[in-house]
Design a protein that fits this description.
- By secondary structure, this protein is mainly beta.
- The chain has a domain at 44-194.
- The chain is 4% helix and 43% strand.
- It contains 1 helix and 25 strands.
- The protein has one helix at 5-17; strands at 52-57, 62-64, 69-81, 87-91, 94-98, 100-101, 105-109, 112-116, 121-123, 127-130, 135-137, 143-151, 153-154, 161-172, 178-180, 194-195, 198-203, 206-207, 211-218, 225-233, 236-245, 253-260, 267-276, 280-290, 327-328.
- The strands form 6 sheets. A 6-stranded mixed beta sheet has the order 18-24-23-20-21-25, with no helix packed on it.
- The longest helix is centred in the N-terminal third of the chain and has 13 residues, at 5-17.
- The protein is flat, with a radius of gyration of 20 Å.
């Protein structure tokens, strides 16, 4: 499901309002609740928090015929890094959204890994979509590149590096004419990526409550604090979660479990995997289907499709498990977005 910019902003605001001011240094959050978020000054062209991306650019204008190809590309610049030989940046699935009539046009870009030297810039493989109907773009409203709340990740610990991202579009008509935008935003903000943590598994993907759901991370996870949360959208409710720290010298795979309670009606819910640094970093979103239970009745939920926004490759074969108990938490309701769902990732 592709979230509109307006819906994303509402969710950003809710996240900020529900988090307490952060003390200096690394924070250890209360179980089940996201860590405090540090407020950062952001460019007017960028509404990102927690080092995800919401980047505006000048949109196309005018009417284009069916068969016109819209291509979107982004580039990442490594402004600073402590890592030898450059930095590997893990960019999650992105959604480029263009205001248009009869309907907004969305271009989805698959997750990318880019290895870039300090001071260098690398461009990712473009994403494309072909217009099926005559389409009129609204040139007065910005087009937006959005990582849909998911943070960038990198090969170095959080705070040791900074990157910036710009993006651009090209329209190619069936008669061979092309028009190209400018790279935007013109003054991109600095992003401090989370340290990489690979999502090994979310299991099971279908449950009948009460039942546990476990998410496992692998990679450089020792000495870091993670959290797993479950969320419904109708009503918006971060209804169960936990957090725990993998000790220094702990296992190379770290797993967290929450129990989906019996009062959750049949629907598709979201599992959030968070990283708690001096800011709160959302690493992954994954869908889980809640099935029928004799004590519940059907209720509203997500539409049938939802992408798992993986920042890097799925890694298997690591060992070690840390499982903790669930804690109930609550949030205020939020009206869910009404736009369509992105395609499921391949593989």
């Amino acid at each position: 499901m592709a979230w509109t910019v307006a819906a994303a902003l509402v969710v950003f605001a809710l996240l900020v309002l529900t988090l307490a001011p952060a003390p200096a240094g690394r924070t250890t959050p209360a179980p089940g609740r996201p860590a405090a978020t540090i407020s950062l000054a952001r460019s007017a062209d960028n509404t990102s928090i927690n080092d995800n991306l919401v980047l505006n650019a000048t949109p196309p204008a005018g009417t284009y015929a069916p068969g016109t190809v819209l291509k979107v590309v982004f580039r990442v610049t490594v402004n600073s890094s402590t890592g030898p030989g450059g930095l590997t940046v893990y960019v999650p699935q992105l959604d480029a959204s263009f205001p248009a009539v009869p309907a907004p046009v969305n271009v989805f870009l698959a997750p990318r890994n880019l290895t870039i030297g300090v001071g260098a810039t690398a461009a990712a493989t473009p994403g494309t979509v072909t217009l099926r109907n005559p389409t009129t773009f609204n040139g007065t409203h910005p087009a937006t590149l959005d990582s849909q709340l998911v943070a960038l990740m990198a090969s170095e610990p959080f705070g040791n590096d900074s990157v910036s991202v710009q993006w651009n579009w090209t329209l190619s008509t069936p008669n061979g004419a092309t028009s190209t935008g400018v790279w935007g935003p013109s003054n991109p903000p600095l992003i401090h990526p989370a340290e990489v943590a690979f999502l090994q598994s979310v299991s099971p993907r279908s449950v009948v409550p009460p039942a546990p759901v476990t998410a496992c991370l692998t990679g450089p996870v020792q000495g870091r604090t993670f959290a797993l949360h479950a969320e419904t959208l109708k009503p918006f409710d971060d209804f169960v979660g936990n957090s725990t720290r993998d000790p220094v010298g702990g296992p190379s795979t770290w797993c967290l479990t929450v129990v989906i309670p019996v009062n959750i009606t049949p629907q598709t819910i979201l599992m959030h995997v968070w990283d708690y640094e001096s800011v709160t970093l959302l690493l992954y979103l994954a869908k889980v289907t809640v099935g029928n239970n004799s004590s519940t009745s059907a209720g509203p939920g997500l539409p049938g499709l939802w992408s798992d926004y993986a920042n890097g490759a799925i890694v298997v074969g690591a060992v070690g498990v840390g499982v903790v108990t669930a804690v109930i938490v609550r949030r205020e309701p939020l009206e869910p977005p009404t736009t369509g769902s992105p395609p499921e990732p391949n593989g």
